[in-house]
Automatic annotation (TrEMBL):
It comes from the Bacteria. Coiled coil: none annotated. One of its GO terms (molecular function) is diguanylate cyclase activity. It comes from Pseudoduganella violacea. SUPFAM superfamilies: GAF domain-like (SSF55781), Nucleotide cyclase (SSF55073). Its EC number is 2.7.7.65. This is diguanylate cyclase.
Amino acid sequence: MSAAEPIQTLPFRRPQDDQHRLAALHRYDVLKEPAGEDFRFLTELAARICGVPYAFITLVDAEQVWVKSYTGLAIDQLPRDQCYCSLAVLGENATEIPDLSADARTARMPLTAGEPHLRMYSSVALSTSDGYALGTLCVMDVKPGRLSAEQRGLLQGLARQAMALIELRAKEKALQASLHELEQLATTDELTGLHNRRSLLHRLKFEVARTRRFRTPLSAVMIDLDHFKRVNDEYGHAAGDLVLADIGRLLRENIRVIDLAGRYGGEELCILLPNTPPEGARKFAESLRAKIEAQVHHDGARSIQVTASFGIASFNHMDIDDADSLLRQADAALYRAKQNGRNRVEN
Ligand SMILES: Nc1nc2c(ncn2[C@@H]2O[C@H](COP(=O)(O)OP(=O)(O)OP(=O)(O)O)[C@@H](O)[C@H]2O)c(=O)[nH]1
């Protein structure tokens, strides 16, 4: 081939059910996962068993081939039409090309025609239990040749191990996702999307310990909606729920990532403000009070507006007491806010 002649890539044939195959591949959700030692060990072993310099675990995606693990040649991904493994997922369980330069499909592919001038390719498909080939465990050599029956048998065994590892990773990921979902469910109040009482109290303990350790201030803001009983009585319980949900959203949108907003009880909410002195907490509470007052809740054609009273309590590391007394102080301040006319902040 002259230097000017363009490198020809694989005639891009796809398996007939490539869409389903790709759907199966994406279900495993492991394409961009770091490979890890266990995959590397398998390619290392495959290269040794077959007595060749190169071995790869590949996953054949829509337009590219992801190399999960390599031995001998550092490649992370290749365009699908430049990779021999695109042939290997066409349906055969095992694919062997004894001389890549003598095969019309592969002779002018970059890794055959250019460095490292590969000649032998042998692969076993990584197949799902429902028969989709996601990719391969493959070995390659710069000399033409074939694997022995024994080598092919061992390569099959290693491919099964690679597939088992992929399945294990996918299950681990799914388990992590379920655990995360469960944790969300266990710590979140469904109506407001805020932390539930248990989660709030758990975090409060942690924040109190942190305040002691790092000698930083900690403030708690207790919020109680004013005359909320009237909202329920006048508009109905569902409308009351809608108002609570709106206010939950407002709180979530107005706190910093290190703050925590929780539903302490029915229409009583609480915000923990780590590293925040009383003046800061007061400023924050004032601005939130104004936002709640200005918020219009729409229940069908009806508009509802509510106000809220705020009680603030703060610790600093000098007068640290315990989590319960912080909440008691905030509750007492909230009581004063109610006594002094509602829709106000007290500390
Ligand atoms: N819709 C709805 N209402 C709730 C929920 N939780 C508590 N409430 C209501 O909130 C109201 C609280 O009433 P009260 O404790 O008398 O206080 P208030 O009417 O808000 O009056 P003040 O707090 O004194 O301003 C009750 O009617 C509760 O039923 C809830 O999840 N959804």
